[in-house]
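Title: Request for sanity check on Internalin-J prediction

Description:
We are preparing a figure and want to confirm that the structure record we downloaded matches what your pipeline produces today. Could someone re-run it with the sequence below and paste the raw structure tokens into this thread? We only need the token string, no images.
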Amino acid sequence: MKKIYKRILSLGLAVGVIFSLQESVHICAQENTQTTESIFADYGDENGGETDTAEQITGTGAEENTEQTTEETETGKNTEQTTEETETGKNTELTTETETGEIMDADDTEEAEESVWMMYDGTEEPEEPDEPELDEGFHQDGSVAINEMNFPDDEFRKKIKKYDTNKDGLLADSENRKITKLEFEEKIQTEGIEYLRYLKKIVLTDGICSIMNSSSLEEIEISDAYKVDHLRVASFSGCTALKSLSIDAGIDLDAGIDFTGCQKLETLTIKEYMGAALDLSPCIALKKLDIENLYGKDRSSIAKLDLNSQQKILELSLKAVKLSEDFVLPKSVQKVHVEGVSSKKLDLSNYKNLKEFSVEGSTENLQLNGCANLEKLDIEDYYLKTLNLSGCSELTEFDTLDQDNLKNIDFTGCKSLKKLRISSGGLKKLNLQECSKLKELEVNAGKLTDLKLPEKIQKITFENLLLTSLDLSKYNKLEEVYFEGEAPKLEKIKCVNTSLKIFDVDRFEKLEKLRELDLSNNKYLKEAEFAAYGYGTYVDPVIPNIERINLSGCKSLKTFACHKAPKLKTVNLTGCVNITELDVAYTGVGSVDISKYKKLVTYRCAGNNLTKLDVTKNKKLRTLDCQKNRLKYLDLRKSTNLTNIELNDNELTSFDISNISGLGWYKFDNQYYTIAKGKKIDLAKLPGFDMSKIGKVTGGTRSDGGYGSVVTLTDKKTNTVSYEYDVQNGWYQTFHIKFENPDNLASIKKVKCTLNKNTYTYDGKAKKPAVTVTLKGKKLKQGTDYTVKYKNNKKSGIATVIVSGKGAYIGTVTKTFKILPKKTSFTKSVSVNAGEIELSWEKADSATGYEIRYSTDSKMKKNVQKKVITKNKNTTLKIKKLKNNAVYYVQIRTYKLADGKKVYSAWSKVDQIKL
């Protein structure tokens, strides 16, 4: 034995031999012989190394002989080991053939084995370990039994069994590796999740449960937690790898949530929480927190939220959360969203890391001063009164929506702000002078009376201004100005010598009180449109009461349009040599010298009472609309490019369009030249009249046997002579001459006409006020000297009386009187909710609509607000946003639209409502 032992040592095969000896002792016969890779393999190897099971090592119950041969590559020699074992384990003979062919018996083998073990580690041979339990925990090969002890929940165990591909009832390590994500639509208990060593994510869609002691789980999603009525505690303790937890629904807990061991949790979302204080102190790595609906033991109480341990948090979202007065945000936070949070004051002063902040809720005082890195701010808070943004030097854009109560804003030091929108019904002062980079501003402030802007502002949009005058002249970088709301007191606008390119007033929001507009010396301004024209229709202007417009020095101006402004008397276009479109129709401008506008293509001057018009210098003119004037002569012989002409309703006696070949649209009708007295006219003396072009004459006779130029009236019925005239190479147009007083009768137009009553109230019957007519103190007699007719005198609105001369008198005079719509009154006027009243009234069939006024002043002289209902079938109204604990007084009246004007009934009696 010693000889053999020394030979083994000399060849360096001691370990190899002991392996063979150890296997010979412990390996029993099996049906299929397996080769052992390493008896010292680590059973708990996390890198996936597979090990022999206890059954493979002990081989119990073997009934056949097993022969195992090991080929040793290093020596090139074979060692043959044979084990013969009976069914009962008796008569076991072990033989070993050595390198020299010597045979070792069993005793020699045990002696050699014992000696080698002692030489290997200096200790006695270790005892054989106890056989591990097969039903609980991990086996030595890393597998785990899929049974009720390891996975008590039926649904959970059922899901795990799907990964048991060989159906042996064990979850082998190779099978376990495939379980990285689990989803459950049923309520489950997750006991045994700790055995799923490679699980990264779990999704539960039927309520919350505790998930504990998972060292691999990184992400948990839970929805419909509200389906669980009540739990004592939800625990995620021991989930040491957990990074993200989302609970999408409600939690009702007594003891709260246990986050013990969740030191790596970075993202936490909880949609509704009710219970004990939310203890997040173990979550020291938390970076993103989203909480919605946080309550105490009931919805009226406060659940304490303490974030003092979360000094790495970067994003925070709080929705419908009642915060305690001592709540403090971590200074590390970079992005904050607050919605529906019950806190009168939010103080984030000097949060240097804060970059984004948005708020929706009931905060009255918001302090963001000193937030030097704040870049984005969004506020939707109706109750907000004070906002401090001083020192927010990186803020580039800010949008406030409908902050009706906002009264104080501090923008001091907001030097990076480029775009700003402010909507506040309570703001009276706005100072933006330190916002040196501000380029765009939208301001909706119905009470704003003091506005200071930065010098380099480029674009301004005004909505609802209370200013009486606006001077933008010192902002020489200003390029665009828009008016998109009411400005009920604005009378004067001045924007002189700037970079203005666009000046626009929304056609749906008129500047009713504007009287004067000075846009002179804006060399980049190309358009100044205050009215629109389309499909033959002049749309109502946006500055209907304007009196003076100055556009002198606007060298780039191409379009000016302001029609249907009857008070407009002066338009200064000096230096506007590039103008191509000019529209001053239906204004009081009168005659405009357009001879200097050589590039003019379109000219509209309809309805201006013009008697003269010279277009001979405007050779590029293509559209001319001068209808409804008093033009007696118009020379069109040089206007060869005209394509659209509207000359109808003038006093022209002739015109010549023989040089115009491309005429498309035209209107020439209703040319009536008037003769005040007498019944003769010499056509040859009319300007531009060519007797060779006259055609058929009706209602009169020509002198010289029908060939002369003098025409005498013969139609005493109409007092009108009509004739045809060749306007273009055989194209005859009809002209008319009206003889107003052929018999030199006295004109009734100079009479004094009075009505015995000027106002009636609608009752469905025709109204006929008595008429008195006097001329130079002489009372004329109805039926002899004049006749009377009534028009529109039954329905509510404006009725007309027509007095026509008769006998020795000629002409007509008209007078008007009002028929007021029937009054109405409130049938209900009550306070229904806080800050809200509800009104209803009787329908008035004779009215177009209703007007309601309300105030806290019983005399209706102070702070009066009005509401207009445009349809008479609407007989109810709710008025909101009123002061609580105040007394309001309300009245209603009806109105009728007549010729674009409102005729009002008397006011109803005053109703008193206490909120």
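Thanks, this matches our download. The first strand starts at residue 66 and ends at 71.
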